[in-house]
Each structure stands twice: as C-alpha cells, then as structure tokens.
C-alpha cells in the first residue's frame, strides 16, 4: 500500500499506471506545498474517462483544465453560492430547511422511531444546495427525486474510478469491469433531471415570471451570448455546473 511504499521510497514518489505516470504525495507539508503555495502548477486535470463521460465531456468545470473557462465558471459559482452577500440572501432557505428537519425529527420521536442523523443531515444539506442551485427540494421531488438520488449516489461512486482505458487508452473499447457502461447509464439519468430543470427555468425566463433566484437563473443570463466556450454548448455548461 501507499504507506509501506512511502516508508520505503520517501514522502514523494511516482507510479507508472499503464501509460500514465502518477505522483504520490504522502507528507502533509509537501501536500500543502503542492496545493497552496504552488496550486497553479498542480491545477491541471488529467483526461480521465469518468470525468469525460460523467462531466459532459469535461464541461463540468471542476474537471476542466486550468484556464479562462475554469476561472470564469468558478467566479460565477463563487459569487452566487459562496459570497457573504449571497449567504445572507439565502439564509431564509437554511432556516426553512432546518425547520423542516426539526419537524421530521419531532414526528420520528413522537412515534418512537429510531433516528439516523447521518441520513437526516444529508437530506438537510442536499435540500439547501438544490434550492440555491435549481430551486428544488431534494426531499420533496417525488419520483424524480428518487431517480436523482440514486443517480447521484452512483455518480459519486463512479466519478473517481480508474478504468482500464485511463491506464491504456487504446484499450478503451474493452469494458471488462462494466464501468464505462455504468457511467453512460448514470450520465443519462442525471442529464434527464438536469434537462427538466433547465427547461423549467427557460420557460420561467421567457414568460417573465419571477426574478433571478438561483444558480441556474444566473447561468442562463450570464451565458446567453455563448461566449464562454467554443468546445461546449451553453446548455451542457449550465447542466454540468448545476449538477456538479
């Protein structure tokens, strides 16, 4: 394992994974040096199959190479989701969701039901994020929500998978583990949900109903002229960013 290797080879060593070379950093100080002091030098992204198939051909900015596209989308997302002003604007969402959580916990306790706090806290976080991103509630999406939850779980399991084609690209057609087919299926599920969200937001925009209220609204407005990327369609960028 990597611990034994680091004890033998030192805190920084390389591995040859097929045609790819990977660098293993097992020292906290060196990791800090890589990702804080020299973060730009390490900001490149490898062309992994999972990131391509699940990330809209790398339109998902967290999987895209460091450059104008990555920087512009990161700025939009940071301003919409993470700025102090925006956090104040969405405080009512947090209050609503915490209130809903307390009600669910109260009902469970009243019925003497066991409570899994991990489950409830996950739902709380997802409700808040989805309301800020797409104006949706993770807990109240019905059948659509169930499909999205299942697809999201599979997405998280598959996105970091290192496939045979990642190590040996010319064997990309050989899907012995079934991971590539699973990635295709999960992407289709995620895309169906994201497409429905986008269509709903575009209808709202065209009818003039409501004001800018979530990240999808902002992305539709900011990317209207299609200036951000020549490699990705605007709809793909919006869906990729909303589901990241």
UniProtKB/TrEMBL annotation:
It is found in: Membrane. GO terms for molecular function: heme binding; iron ion binding; monooxygenase activity; oxidoreductase activity, acting on paired donors, with incorporation or reduction of molecular oxygen. It comes from the Eukaryota. Its main location: membrane. SUPFAM superfamilies: Cytochrome P450. Keywords: Heme, Iron, Membrane, Metal-binding, Oxidoreductase, Transmembrane, Transmembrane helix. The keyword Oxidoreductase applies. Pfam families: p450. GO terms for cellular component: membrane. Its cofactor is heme. PANTHER family: CYTOCHROME P450 (PTHR47947:SF26), CYTOCHROME P450 82C3-RELATED (PTHR47947). This is Cytochrome P450.
